[in-house]
């Protein structure tokens, strides 16, 4: 197979996309192993075929992986809600149909699509109109599946309705393959630009994370010490008063600092409440510090060429 011959530059992105497929397959597999295996098989077939057809467009893999993960998630949500009693065979067939239709259309139009995958044809109003129409029609199929009382049918008829809806999406995907490929390429380019910017922000991000951890640990220790020195419990949970362990204290500290508020542990003493308020204030100050450092890093990056010129 030519995919596994010659240049191995495809190996890292292929493994990365398959790694994402493994995570997605494990997440959507609520009813056993059959459907996750179908998802993995579709990913292996799809990514392998795309790498073979477009070995020069490895960045295209990123957009394809995101698109595949999104499709698997939406298919699972809509399918389980609209057709809860459909058989595994019907579910797997319905999932594979749009994937196979898309790959068939890609292979048929590979000569025209190769230029797009290589980074050509920037978005224009016609492209946006066509991809918008495809997304709208696909959304209408999903809405119809959720709105019609298909879940009242028997298991076999639910399977038939599920496959029929998937067949409609397959036709739409095959007809709009050019626009879909351009959309996936655009997504990959945007995500690549975001990753390059994230590299420049690694130092402020690492500093922010370190300070967040420091505040969380320090306040967790203070909560634990206060509870240990008190004669009466300072914290309560759904079952009543609790004796705070360090694990509980660290959990409560992180929840307080992030202002999530799960509601599984709460203070019942005014002093500890003030201590929690102080941690929230420290978290807000830390958030302001993070915004300031990110802004300062961006400004410094813009000023660096000018400073170099001045030193010359």
UniProtKB/TrEMBL annotation:
The keyword Disulfide bond does not apply. Gene3D superfamilies: 1.10.287.70. SUPFAM superfamilies: Voltage-gated potassium channels. Residues 243-291 form the Potassium channel domain. Keywords: Membrane, Transmembrane, Transmembrane helix. Pfam families: Ion_trans_2. The chain crosses the membrane at residues 9-28, 34-53, 60-83, 89-106, 134-151, 157-177, 198-225, 274-292. This is Potassium channel domain-containing protein. It comes from Pararoseomonas baculiformis.
């Amino acid at each position: 197979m030519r995919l596994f011959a010659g240049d191995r530059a495809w190996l890292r992105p292929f493994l990365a996309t398959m790694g994402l497929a493994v995570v997605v397959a494990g997440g959507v597999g609520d009813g056993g192993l059959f459907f996750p295996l179908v998802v993995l098989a579709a990913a292996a077939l799809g990514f392998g075929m795309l790498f073979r057809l477009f070995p020069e467009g490895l960045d295209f893999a990123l957009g394809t992986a995101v698109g595949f993960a999104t499709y698997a998630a939406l298919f699972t949500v809509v399918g389980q809600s609209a057709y809860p009693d459909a058989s595994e065979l019907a579910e797997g067939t319905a999932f594979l149909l749009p994937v196979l239709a898309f790959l068939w259309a890609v292979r048929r139009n590979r000569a025209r699509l190769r230029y797009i995958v290589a980074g050509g044809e920037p978005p224009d109003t016609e492209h946006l109109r066509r991809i918008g129409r495809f997304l709208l029609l696909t959304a209408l199929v999903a809405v119809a599946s959720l709105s019609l009382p298909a879940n009242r049918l028997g298991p076999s008829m639910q399977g038939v309705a599920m496959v029929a809806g998937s067949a409609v999406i397959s036709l739409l995907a095959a007809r709009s393959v050019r626009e879909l490929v351009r959309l996936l390429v655009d997504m990959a380019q945007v995500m690549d630009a975001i990753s390059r910017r994230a590299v420049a922000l690694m130092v402020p991000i690492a500093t922010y994370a370190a300070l967040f951890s420091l505040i969380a640990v320090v306040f967790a220790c203070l909560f634990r010490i206060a509870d240990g020195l008190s004669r009466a419990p300072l914290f309560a949970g759904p079952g009543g008063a609790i004796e705070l362990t360090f694990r509980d204290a660290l959990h409560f500290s992180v929840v307080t600092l992030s202002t999530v508020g799960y509601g599984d542990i709460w203070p019942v003493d005014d002093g500890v409440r003030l201590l929690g308020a102080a941690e929230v204030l420290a978290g807000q100050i830390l958030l302001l510090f993070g915004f300031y450092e990110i802004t300062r890093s961006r400004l410094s990056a813009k000023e660096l060429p000018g400073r170099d010129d001045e030193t010359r």
